[in-house]
Amino acid sequence: MALKEYLYTQVAERRLSVADAKQYLRELSTAAGPHDIAVIGMAGRFPEAPDLTAYWDNLRAGRASIRDLPDSRKPNALDFIRRFHQDDLRREGRINPDGSLRIDFARRGYLDQVDQFDAAFFGVGPREAAAMDPNQRVFLEVAYAALEDAGYGGRRVHGRQVGTFVGIDHVEELKYKRLAAKDPLAVTGTWPGILASRLAYLFDLRGPSMVIDTACSSGLVSVHQACRALRQQECELAIAGGLSSFYYEATTFSSEQRELESIEFFDDTVRTFDRRAKGTTWGEGIGVVVLKPLDAAIRDGDLVHAVIRGVRSTTTGRPTGSLLPTRMPRSNFC
Q1: 165-207 confidence digits (pLDDT tens)
Q2: Of 268, 258, 250, 267, which is closest to residue 92 (Cα–Cα)?
Q3: Domain range summary for the chain, segments of one domain joined by +
Q4: Which fold has domain 32-333?
């Protein structure tokens, strides 16, 4: 009955169509179980898409967002190169007579910015904010946006059993750590394991907190772990997400060899499930969801974006290559 009343309210407030309400009733009322997890909040930041609305518009338009490094970010990237690659710059003749640098930046899926952060809003001092890796700053911003989308902004989650699960791939060098290394606050500001705990600390969250690295699947596995924690009643609410941020990519100096160069595709295009697939390209982005048991979400009148019926994490054994999927039967996941 609570589910029906909730859907009726959504229709009455014109937040849900009658047709969609009937479809949800057919799907949920017949199969809703005690382990269903509701997605009650979402937020994201992606190349050429500062929020989920812009991201969806890009998807609908079939817009590719692989591009040159935005001009607004080049000064910071050039400053880093000037600080840490002086020998390479001189040896390869990349310093112009006027002192400017001759650098080509690789095409990637770049965010518009990673250096703007309202430290005062999050109660972080200026010096500490400067020593924080952009990954920590961006995650705080997007996680809070997801909480606001769920209706839990302000201090509504402070002191509550809320879990934090963050997926991030550590394959790239921690460039920012080299910039902030001389400041003692950089120990926590650039330590990858602190990423989830930073949010828990600032918002006084009392649930489990962990950073997960399973390479490309890190974000999805963080959602999987969040669902398990909710089902085992380790927390009443969970914040889960994944992020990738490279800050910049310059053309490689002759003294360096990027480990992942061999799997990059020459035309900056990823062709997933396509016979023309020859490699990958890299991009920045972050997505965060707020999760809650479905029955609790309905009871509390939360807006439900989607329902997670089941999750499972597994490996594929020994396929053709360690980075390739296998033709595992669907029944193996049931």
Answers
A1: 999 876 555 566 666 556 666 667 677 778 889 999 999 999 9
A2: 250
A3: 1-31, 32-333
A4: Peroxisomal Thiolase; Chain A, domain 1 (3.40.47)
Q: What is the mean pLDDT of the chain?
A: 83
Residue 9: name the closest of 24, 27, 21 by CA. Answer: 21
Cα distance between residue 163 and residue 153, in whole Å: 16
Cα(10)–Cα(18) distance, rounded to whole angstroms? Answer: 9
Helix (H, G, I), strand (E, B) or coil at 230: helix
SS3 call for 100? coil
Tokens of 20: 């969609």
- Retrieve residue 29's tokens: 């009322």
Mean pLDDT of all residues in 93-114: 88
Q: With beta carbons less than 8 A apart as the criterion, state whether 44 and 286 touch.
A: yes
Which amino acid is it at 93?
G
Query: Dihedral of CA 134/135/140/141: which sign?
Result: positive
Please, where are the H alpha helices in the chain? 2-12, 18-31, 52-61, 74-84, 86-91, 126-130, 134-149, 175-180, 186-189, 195-202, 218-231, 294-299
- Cβ atoms of 249 and 105 closer than 8 Å: yes
Burial of 182 (0-12, 13-18, 19+ CB in 10 A): exposed
Please give the residue that has the higher pLDDT: either 161 or 317: 161
Longest Cα pair distance anywhere in the chain, in angstroms? 76
Q: Which residue is associated with the tokens 């085992």?
A: 232
Positive or negative torsion for Cα 311, 316, 320, 322: positive
Beta bridge partners of 240: 165, 289
